[in-house]
């Protein structure tokens, strides 16, 4: 399936352009074995002319047939190429960016390629319960690998110390896996948390 790049996309979002749109599908909690619970997820990646994608994922527990049983959770965030912030960039807060994108051409974006031929990216994701994640990773073609650099927890949040996520585009479908370390046990490493297979709905 060919990837369509929106004509109004700021140049540095082109490597992320295959994510843009609405995705929906089913997944399994945990390792996906026979006893793992099922869920339905709707994911959106949108852009507003600034050099990042806005992300939202809403999930519901379902029965084996996919019938919604109850809400599961919502997460929101921002995805962008990882680069030094310049004076022309917006922020902090409401400080406006220059009208012209900081990176104005494909050549300027290409200069950001890493030694593996991909692009370094940063992703921030917030969850209910006072938890926010900051991921760093790489996007290389239609594949993304992310690892938490920091997990921020509120004073009453549940234990959660680290995570990895992988995303891939396979035959036009978005596949992802999420592994987490709760930190509740000394030395406890990453364990399978969830995975899903999503198809594009718009």
UniProtKB/TrEMBL annotation:
<dbReference type="InterPro" id="IPR014878">
    <property type="entry name" value="THAP4-like_heme-bd"/>
</dbReference>
<keyword id="KW-0413">Isomerase</keyword>
<dbReference type="InterPro" id="IPR022939">
    <property type="entry name" value="Nb(III)_bact/plant"/>
</dbReference>
<keyword id="KW-0349">Heme</keyword>
<comment type="pathway">
    <text>Nitrogen metabolism.</text>
</comment>
<feature type="binding site" description="axial binding residue">
    <location>
        <position position="193"/>
    </location>
    <ligand>
        <name>heme b</name>
    </ligand>
</feature>
<keyword id="KW-0408">Iron</keyword>
<dbReference type="InterPro" id="IPR045165">
    <property type="entry name" value="Nitrobindin"/>
</dbReference>
<feature type="domain" description="THAP4-like heme-binding">
    <location>
        <begin position="12"/>
        <end position="200"/>
    </location>
</feature>
<dbReference type="Pfam" id="PF08768">
    <property type="entry name" value="THAP4_heme-bd"/>
</dbReference>
<dbReference type="InterPro" id="IPR012674">
    <property type="entry name" value="Calycin"/>
</dbReference>
<comment type="function">
    <text>Heme-binding protein able to scavenge peroxynitrite and to protect free L-tyrosine against peroxynitrite-mediated nitration, by acting as a peroxynitrite isomerase that converts peroxynitrite to nitrate. Therefore, this protein likely plays a role in peroxynitrite sensing and in the detoxification of reactive nitrogen and oxygen species (RNS and ROS, respectively). Is able to bind nitric oxide (NO) in vitro, but may act as a sensor of peroxynitrite levels in vivo.</text>
</comment>
<keyword id="KW-0479">Metal-binding</keyword>
<protein>
    <recommendedName>
        <fullName>Peroxynitrite isomerase</fullName>
        <ecNumber>5.99.-.-</ecNumber>
    </recommendedName>
</protein>
<feature type="short sequence motif" description="GXWXGXG">
    <location>
        <begin position="21"/>
        <end position="27"/>
    </location>
</feature>
<comment type="similarity">
    <text>Belongs to the nitrobindin family.</text>
</comment>
<feature type="binding site">
    <location>
        <position position="158"/>
    </location>
    <ligand>
        <name>heme b</name>
    </ligand>
</feature>
């Amino acid at each position: 399936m060919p990837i369509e790049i929106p004509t109004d996309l700021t140049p540095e979002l082109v490597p992320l352009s295959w994510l843009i749109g609405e995705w929906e599908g089913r997944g399994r909690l945990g390792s996906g074995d026979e006893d793992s619970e099922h869920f339905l997820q709707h994911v959106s990646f949108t852009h507003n002319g600034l050099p990042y994608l806005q992300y939202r994922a809403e999930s519901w527990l379902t029965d084996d047939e996919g019938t919604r049983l109850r809400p599961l959770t919502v997460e929101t965030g921002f995805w962008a190429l990882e680069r030094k912030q310049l004076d022309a960039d917006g922020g902090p807060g409401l400080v406006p960016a220059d009208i012209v994108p900081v990176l104005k051409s494909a050549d300027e974006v290409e200069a950001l390629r890493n030694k593996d031929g991909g692009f370094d990216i940063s992703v921030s994701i917030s969850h209910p319960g006072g938890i926010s994640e900051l991921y760093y990773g790489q996007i290389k073609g239609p594949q993304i690998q992310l690892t938490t650099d920091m997990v921020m927890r509120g004073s009453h949040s549940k234990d959660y110390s680290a995570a990895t996520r992988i995303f891939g585009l396979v035959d036009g479908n978005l596949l992802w896996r999420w592994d987490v370390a709760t930190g509740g046990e000394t030395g406890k490493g990453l364990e399978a948390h969830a995975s899903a297979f999503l198809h594009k709905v718009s």
